[in-house]
Specification:
The complex is a heterodimer of chains A (about 160) and B (about 210). By secondary structure, chain A is an alpha+beta fold. Chain A is about 40% helix and about 30% strand. The interface between A and B is large, with 42 and 37 residues.
Chain lengths: ~160, ~210
């Protein structure tokens, strides 16, 4: 065992000073985080999602609007087939903004929330997907006696 | 000589600072302090660009979700009086029953916006009132380009003329673009008809 004094040597003083300066510098300087551009990408996609639901929710629209789609759904075992105009238009928008989508419809029936998936938009999303919702007033939608349904759009790139 | 000094240290078993230790330590400390003090400055160039994304989002929201100030700015403001009037462009339709209808753009407002941006002096006023000219407060002056395209990326035309593709000419540096989906209150020549609406894409590009 080394019984010689180590801290009182000049090396010991220099070493402790170095450690002190290093620790002080690390904790004192402001840490600048570079912007995470993936956050902005999410903002863009989410805003586009809201825009899509807003545009397609036309009370005067027919089969290609959300209201018209809900009236003309054929549902079977949790999967609903929308009218072709709606699918085509939504696919056109998705191709233009270069993203994939999953569309679900939620409504309350007999006190329970039921979820329906739209045929053609049933792909599973990736972990970095964004989700937007819009409540649409409709009569007798996929759920019996429902007045309001939630249209849930999940978008990812 | 250095070797013999080193040998002396080894034999004497005492801590002594050698010359190469001093030189090495001072070089190291000098570099360390240099990096520690100049590292924040490395991001100084990038800091300006951090704000571009916010400006693009803000301008797109102002144009798409607000009717502008005052409510009849599209008829009140002209090329001749833009220098003396205060106004803020906004393209959304206002309905007396439903208020401002988001994402529903008025073609007359778009035309007026394009006309004002085309004029050099009125364009400066537009940028000032959109909050893009912060030079009075010691900030940056942002350049902007706004365009309306259809879903196939072609510029929207109404009556044969391009509706909106105005602003500064695109730069080759870092440009941030924000897109919004909108529908016009009148039919245009080449917009996409979705849910009985004339749908288009508004792109706002901002750079320094």
């Amino acid at each position: 065992m080394d019984l010689k004094a180590q801290t009182f040597t000049l090396e010991g003083v220099a070493a402790s000073l170095l450690i002190l300066i290093a620790t002080y510098t690390v904790f004192q300087s402001t840490v600048i985080l570079a912007p995470t551009w993936s956050e902005f990408e999410n903002v863009q996609l989410k805003q586009l999602g809201y825009d899509i639901l807003r545009i397609m929710d036309n009370q005067n629209g027919e089969n290609s609007s959300i209201g018209g789609m809900l009236k003309n759904l054929t549902c079977n075992n949790g999967i609903c087939s929308p009218p072709m105009e709606f699918s085509d238009n939504l696919t056109k928008i998705l191709n233009a903004i270069n993203s994939f989508a999953r569309l679900e419809i939620l409504c309350v029936e007999n006190g329970e929330i039921r979820t329906f998936i739209l045929d053609g938009f049933e792909k599973a999303p990736t972990p970095n997907a964004v989700r937007v919702s819009r409540f649409v007033i409709v009569e007798n939608a996929p759920c019996v006696n429902a007045k309001v349904v939630e249209v849930r759009l999940t978008l990812w790139r | 000589m250095l070797i013999s000094t080193h040998a002396q240290i080894k034999m004497m078993e005492e801590g002594k600072l050698s010359l190469d230790l001093l030189i090495g330590l001072s070089i190291f400390l000098f570099t360390f302090i240099f990096i520690a003090s100049f590292l924040p400055g490395v991001f100084a160039d990038v800091r300006n660009e951090i704000n571009l994304a916010h400006q693009a989002y803000r301008i797109s929201a102002l144009l798409v979700e607000d009717l502008g100030f005052d409510s009849s700015w599209d008829t009140d403001i002209t090329i001749s009086n833009c220098q003396s009037q205060e106004f803020r462009p906004g393209l959304a339709i206002y309905d007396s029953n439903n208020g401002t209808i988001f994402n529903n753009l008025s073609v007359t407002k778009i035309r007026k916006f394009a006309e004002l941006l085309n004029d050099p002096l009125c364009g400066e006023r537009v940028r000032l009132f959109l909050g893009l000219n912060l030079s009075e407060f010691g900030g940056n002056k942002y350049k902007i380009n706004v365009s309306l395209k259809n879903l196939e990326d072609e510029l929207i035309k109404a009556d044969g003329a391009i509706l909106l593709n105005h602003g500064d000419s695109m730069s080759s540096g870092q440009v941030v673009k924000f897109e919004r989906l909108v529908y016009l209150n009148q039919m245009a020549d080449n917009c996409d008809i979705i849910a009985e609406r004339c749908v288009a894409k508004l792109e706002v590009s901002v750079w320094i």
